[in-house]
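Need residues for this backbone.
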C-alpha cells in the first residue's frame, strides 16, 4: 500500500546557505570587506583589524567559482527552492557607496540563470550576518540610524534588479540574534557585556524600521513579492512544575518573540515596552518610524535546531554551544555540540508561532551538525537521516494540525564553514566538501547517503518518511 502524505502539493522542499559561509572569493569581483572577513574564529574571539589567512571563510568552499556545479547537485536532489543570501558588500562594497557594484549584481544574475535552468525557486536573504565592515567601523553599525537608509538603498537596488526573477525574500537572518551577539547581528563591535541596553535596543529599532521600509519598497516595485522575516525559534520549557520556572519560560519566550511581533503586527508589544522602561531605555522613535513599522510581512520564516529548559535555580546546568540561553533539559539527548535534539520541539514551535501570528510559516533552517567521515567516496550519515526524518515527521504532524507551512530548506545543504567557529568539521550537508579546517583539501564534492535519502523524500513529497 502506498504511504499517504500530508505535505501539500507545491510544498517547497530545498536547502539553505549563506554567502559568507560558502562563496569565498572575499576580494574578487569588486567585493568589499564584510564583518565576517575579520572573524577568523567565528564568535570565539574578538574581530581582527584586517582579514587573516586563518579565516577559512575567506576561501570557504569556493562556491563563487563552483556555483553551477553545486546547483546541478541541488537539482539532482530535486530541490524546489534554494535559499541563499546576497553578500551586501558584493553590491555596495563599503555599504555607503553612491553606486552599486555591477560585477556583484552580475554574479547573482548568473546564479539565478542556473536556478532557472532547473526550475528551482530562489529564496533570497538580503542580510545574513554579513554587514559591510565599513558600516561597522565608520558608523558604529546598526546603532547608527544612517544604516537604515544604506540598507534600504541596497534592498531597493536588489529588488529592482531581480524583480522579475525572484518572488520570495527575507529581510534579515535570525534577526533576534542581536540580543546575544551584537557584532554578528548588528555590526556593533562590542561584546554583549560591553554594549549598553540603550545602544542595543536602539540598534534593534533601526533594524526593525529598515526591514519594514524595505518591505514597503519591495511591494511598490513588485506587488507579487512575498517578503518575510526570519527569527530563531527556540522552544523554552519550564525545567520543573514550579510556577516560577513556568513563568520564566513564558517571559523568555515573549522576549524572543517580540521581533516577530513587530514584523507581523507593526507595533511594539507591551511586554517589551515594560522591559525597556525597567532598563531605563528611551528609544528615539520618530512618527515616520511608527508609520514605517506598519508595513508588515507576508510570512514568518525561522531556524530551528534545539529547545532549552528555563529555571529560576541558579545552580541549574547551563548548556554549551548555545547563544540563546536557557538550561539543559535532562529529558532530551544532546548533539556533539551540546544542542538539545528535540523533534517534537519543532511541532511545538510551529503551533505556538501560528497561534501567535496567524501568518504562513516557512522552516528555512534545520539540520544536524556533526563530524562526518568520508569513506570510499561517500559518508554513511545515518545519524543525520534519523535526525531529519524525525523532525520532518513532526512537520507533517503540524500540517495535520492545520498550520500553513510553505516549505522546508535544510540548513547547509552542502557542507559550509561554521558561522560560530569558522571551522568546517561541524558539517550539515547532504554533499561532502573535501575541505579541512586548516584550509587543505581538494574541494571536491561527494554525495552522502543523506543525499539519496533526501532526494527520495522530495520525490515522494514526504511519503517515504519513516513514521
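Answer:
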Amino acid at each position: 500500500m502506498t504511504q499517504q502524505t500530508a505535505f501539500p502539493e507545491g510544498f517547497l522542499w530545498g536547502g539553505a546557505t549563506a554567502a559568507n559561509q560558502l562563496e569565498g572569493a572575499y576580494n574578487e569581483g569588486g567585493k568589499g570587506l564584510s564583518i565576517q572577513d575579520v572573524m577568523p574564529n567565528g564568535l570565539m574571539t574578538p574581530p581582527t583589524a584586517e582579514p587573516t589567512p586563518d579565516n577559512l571563510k575567506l576561501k570557504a568552499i569556493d562556491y563563487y567559482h563552483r556555483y553551477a556545479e553545486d546547483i546541478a547537485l541541488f537539482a539532482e536532489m530535486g530541490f524546489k527552492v534554494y535559499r541563499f543570501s546576497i553578500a551586501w558588500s558584493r553590491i555596495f562594497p563599503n555599504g555607503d557607496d553612491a553606486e552599486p557594484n555591477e560585477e556583484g549584481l552580475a554574479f547573482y544574475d548568473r546564479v539565478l540563470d542556473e536556478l532557472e535552468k532547473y526550475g528551482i525557486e530562489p529564496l533570497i536573504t538580503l542580510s545574513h550576518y554579513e554587514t559591510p565592515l565599513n558600516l561597522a567601523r565608520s558608523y558604529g553599525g546598526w546603532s547608527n540610524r544612517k544604516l537604515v537608509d544604506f540598507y534600504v538603498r541596497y534592498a531597493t537596488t536588489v529588488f529592482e534588479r531581480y524583480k522579475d526573477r525572484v518572488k520570495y525574500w527575507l529581510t534579515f537572518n535570525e534577526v533576534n540574534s542581536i540580543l546575544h551577539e551584537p557584532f554578528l547581528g548588528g555590526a556593533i563591535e562590542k561584546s554583549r557585556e560591553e554594549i549598553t541596553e540603550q545602544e542595543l535596543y536602539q540598534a534593534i529599532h533601526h533594524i526593525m524600521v529598515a526591514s519594514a521600509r524595505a518591505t514597503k519598497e519591495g511591494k511598490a516595485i513588485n506587488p507579487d513579492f512575498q517578503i518575510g522575516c526570519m527569527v530563531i525559534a527556540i522552544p523554552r520549557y519550564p525545567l520543573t512544575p514550579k510556577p516560577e520556572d513556568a513563568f520564566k519560560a513564558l517571559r523568555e519566550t515573549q522576549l524572543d518573540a517580540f521581533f516577530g511581533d513587530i514584523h507581523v503586527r507593526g507595533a511594539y508589544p507591551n511586554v517589551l515596552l515594560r522591559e525597556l522602561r525597567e532598563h531605563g531605555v528611551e528609544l528615539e522613535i520618530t512618527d515616520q518610524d511608527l508609520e514605517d513599522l506598519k508595513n508588515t510581512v507576508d510570512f514568518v520564516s525561522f531556524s530551528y535546531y534545539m529547545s532549552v529548559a528555563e529555571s529560576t535555580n541558579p545552580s541549574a546546568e547551563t548548556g554549551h554551544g548555545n547563544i540563546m540561553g536557557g538550561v539543559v533539559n535532562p529529558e532530551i539527548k544532546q548533539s556533539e555540540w551540546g544542542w538539545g535534539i528535540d523533534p517534537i520541539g519543532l511541532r511545538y514551535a510551529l503551533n505556538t508561532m501560528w497561534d501567535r501570528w496567524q501568518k504562513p510559516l516557512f522552516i528555512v533552517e534545520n539540520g544536524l551538525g556533526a563530524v562526518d567521515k568520508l569513506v570510499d567516496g561517500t559518508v554513511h550519515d545515518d545519524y543525520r537521516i534519523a535526525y531529519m526524518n524525525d523532525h520532518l515527521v513532526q512537520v507533517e504532524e503540524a500540517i495535520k494540525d492545520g498550520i500553513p507551512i510553505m516549505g522546508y530548506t535544510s540548513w547547509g545543504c552542502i557542507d559550509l564553514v561554521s558561522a560560530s567557529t569558522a571551522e568546517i568539521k561541524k558539517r550539515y550537508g547532504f554533499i561532502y566538501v573535501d575541505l579541512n579546517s586548516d584550509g587543505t583539501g581538494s574541494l571536491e564534492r561527494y554525495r552522502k547517503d543523506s543525499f539519496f535519502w533526501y532526494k527520495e523524500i522530495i520525490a515522494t513529497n514526504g511519503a517515504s518518511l519513516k513514521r
